[in-house]
Amino acid sequence: MKKPLFLTLLCVLSIGLYAASNEKPSERELVTQNMPEIEAPSKKYKVLCFSKPYGFRHSSIEIGKTMMEVMAEKTGLFDVTFSDDLTEFEPDKIKQYDAICLNNNTHLENGMKDPKMRETFINYVKKGGGIFAIHSATDGGWPEYVDMIGGNFAGHPWGAGGTWGIANEDSKHPVVKDVFGGKNFTIKDELYQYKDFDRAKNRVLLALDMSHEENLKRKGNRADNDYALAWLKKYGKGRVFVSSFGHNKEVFYNPEILKMWAEGFRYVLGEVDVDTVSIPKPVAQ
Ligand SMILES: [Zn+2]
Predict the structure, then answer these.
(1) Of 1, 12, 136, 242, which one has the fewest beta carbons inside 10 Å?
(2) Is residue 174 part of a domain?
(3) How far is the CA of 189 from the centre of ligand 1 (A)?
(4) Per the domain annotation, does 96 fall within a domain?
């Protein structure tokens, strides 16, 4: 080989290696890096991840699935089955799952029209099933579904492009005590306001901080100014966790949100028992 050609090849190879070493990590790598370690689970649970929108389709559905795969692999807490087939909700199939992740689905009432299937689904939760609801899983539904979830989407004055102040209202609660060290924080995401939301029926963990100046630039429609963003509850014997967060893709590899979600899963699966008694909205200092 002539020397100039050899040098050219070496140069090309070096540039290639340099570029490879500076490549941005993939979304899966980011989720993996930021997924927390958890206490070794007592068993491996089974989770159905249902992501079918019958209304608005979020582009973050795919990274939601990636998050579920990575959480399953890294924590060993559950095996996950991905299906948007409503037959998974039939009595013989739904009973195999310890919990269902509602991954940015919308308006389930438009797909699940059969009253018997709706009843099977609601009874599944009442009898001890878990529900992990991400963002637009709170958009729509029939009355029992909304009652089970604990609130219904009623607009998003605090949109995806803004960075909003969040109050950690329950900083000693196991599900959020480690989220930003139990302190208030800011996040860029689209946040919902809810109708059919009754604080007395839900344990609110995080809420919009109405003393934060950015938040005050938008006007919500709740007379009580109470904008809950993450809560959990018991529903019969079942366990429900709801996260308003989950519109923007970055939320799915935010290490602090992943801490909350991993703990939320431990709760909905029945791996840990946590306090679900409602607490009043803290009085602003
Ligand atoms: Zn959204």
Answers:
(1) 1
(2) yes
(3) 8
(4) yes
What's the 117 CA to ligand 1 centre distance in angstroms? Answer: 26
Q: Answer whether residue 189 is part of any domain.
A: yes
Please give the backbone phi and psi of residue 88, each rounded to the nearest 5 degrees, phi first.
-65, -20
In angstroms, what is the span from residue 58 Cα to ligand 1's centroid?
Answer: 6
- How close is the Cα of 181 to the center of ligand 1, in Å? 26
- Contact present, 80 and 101 (Cβ < 8 Å): yes
Residue 157 is given by DSSP the state S
If you average pLDDT over residues 199-217, what whole number do you get?
Answer: 97
CA distance 142 to 137: 12
Residue 51 CA, ligand 1 centroid: distance in Å: 14
Q: Compute the average pLDDT of residues 168-193.
A: 97
Assess if residue 15 is contained within a domain: no
Write down the pLDDT at residue 6: 65
Residues 22 and 35: their CA atoms lie apart, in Å, by: 22
Q: Is 138 a residue whose pLDDT tops 60?
A: yes
Question: Which domain does 71 fall in, by range?
Answer: 25-268
